[in-house]
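job 3f2a | input accepted
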Amino acid sequence: MRTVKGPTDHVVVVGAGLAGLSAAMRLSGAGRQVTVLEREAIPGGRAGRLDLEGPAGTYQFDTGPTVLTMPDLIADAFDCVGEEMSDWITLEPVAPLYRAFYPDGSVLNVLSDVDEMTEEIRAVIGPDEAAGYRRYVEFVSQLYRYEMKDFIDRNIDSPFDLLTPDLARLVAIGGFRKLAPKVRQYMTDPRTERIYSFQAMYAGLSPYDALAIYAVIAYMDSVAGVFFPKGGLHSVPVAMAAAAEKHGVTFRFGTEVTSVETVGDRAVAVHTADGERIAADVVVLNPDLPVAYRDLLGRDPWAVRRLTYSPSCFLMLAGSSASYSKIAHHNIHFGRSWRGVFDDLIDRRTLMTDPSVLVTNPTRSDAALAPPGKELYYVLFPTPNLDAPIDWRTEGARYRDEAVRTLESRGYIGFGDAIEVENITTPLDWQARGMERGAPFASAHSFFQTGPFRPGNIWGQNVVFTGSGTQPGVGVPMVLISGRLAAERVTGKDPSYRSRARRT
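job 3f2a | predicted structure (504 res):
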C-alpha cells in the first residue's frame, strides 16, 4: 500500500465533514498532532444544520443526508480516541425504514427484519414474491461479504489489487450483471423492483445501467437497518468533533483555506483567506475532490477532467403546521414511470416528467426538532446536474411551486398553505457550497469511475483526499470509510481499534 513520504507528525485536515472528522479522530488516536480547518462555523460539511425561526419557535433542519446506516463505522472512529459512541450519540432504529407509495394506491413498508419483511411482501404482493425476496437477501448478503473487505474497506492502488478470490466469487454470483435485471431474477413485481433498486440513484446511475454490485447499498439500509440520531443527523459530526477535541484535535472554525503551498509534489503548508500560513507535514483534503484539485492545489489532472457526475437534486426544507398520519419517517412516492425517471435525468438531462420523490418527516422520530405541534419536512426531488441547460436562477421558484403541487397530488393535502418556514436548495446552490457540477452525490459510479478507476486518495508525497469524490465513494458509510483509508495512508496501518472482521 502506498503511504505518504516524510514526517507525519502534524497533519492539517481541511474540512470538518464526516470524512474529515473520521480521518482526524483516527490520526489523533494514532498519535499525530491534528489541526482541522473548517470554513463554516460548525462541523458537518454536507451533513450540516439550518435553524429557521417561525412564529412558534425554532425549526432545526438537517441540510444533507438523512439516512444513517452502518453505525458501527461511526463507533470505530470513536474507538480510535478511546471513546464509546453511545456516550456521545443516541441512535434509534427507524421502523419502517421506508414507506413506499405506489401509483396504484398500494403501500409497502420496508423493514430490516427479514421475517417481518417477508410477511409484509406476502400480504401486499403475494407468496412467490416473498420467497423471491428471501433469496434476494441471501444474494445481497453475499455481495456485502465479498465486497466489503477487498473492494470497499481497503486502499486500492492498482486494478491488480482486485485480483482476489472474492472477485471470482462476485463474478460467479452475477455481481457484474446489470442491477435491475439482477433484482428481477429474484423479484418480479415492479413495486419490489423499485424499492430494492432505487439505491442506484445514490451511485449516480440508472438501475438499468448500474452493476449489480451496487445492490450492496440496498444491503446497507434495507437489510442492515436505518437509524436516526437524537437531535438529527447533524448531531453525529457535532459529537465526533467534540470527542476529537477532547483528545487533542485542534479545530478552527470560520477558517477558509484558499490554497495548498507545494514545493514540487510536496505540500508544506496551507494558506487561509485571512492571509495566514499554516505549516503541515501532511495535508488531508475533505472538500469535493475536483474542487480541491482545482482551487486548492491549482491542478487539473486528466483523471479528474474525464469524470462524469451524478444527477443533482432540488431540496425543500419546510417547517409546517400540518401533519399527515399515513406517512412514516422516510417516504418514497413513486410515479407511474420508473425507467422514465432515469431517461429524463440522465439521458435527456431534463426535469422529471413523472416525479418520484423522497419525503422525510424527522419530527416523527424526534419531535424536539420543531416547535410543539409542528413538523419538519425534508423533500427531495432528483434533478439533472449543472451539465443540463436549466437556468436555476429562474427555474428555482417555478419548480418550488411545482414540487408543492406534486406533493399535494400525492396526498399531502394543504401542504403549501401549512408551510411556516422554508428553505430551497437547487443545483446552483449545491455548486456554491463547493460541489462540482452542483452534484451532491459526486462523480457517478460507472465502471470506469469505481474502485481503482475512481480518483485515488493520495497525490504527490503527502497530500491525501477523503470524502465522496475519492475511494470508496458516495454515502455516509462510504465517506466514513474514506476517512479511515485516508488515515491509513498516513499511518501505514489500520488505525481502527476494532477488528475489521466484524464488518465483513
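job 3f2a | The two ends are 20 Å apart (CA to CA).
job 3f2a | closed
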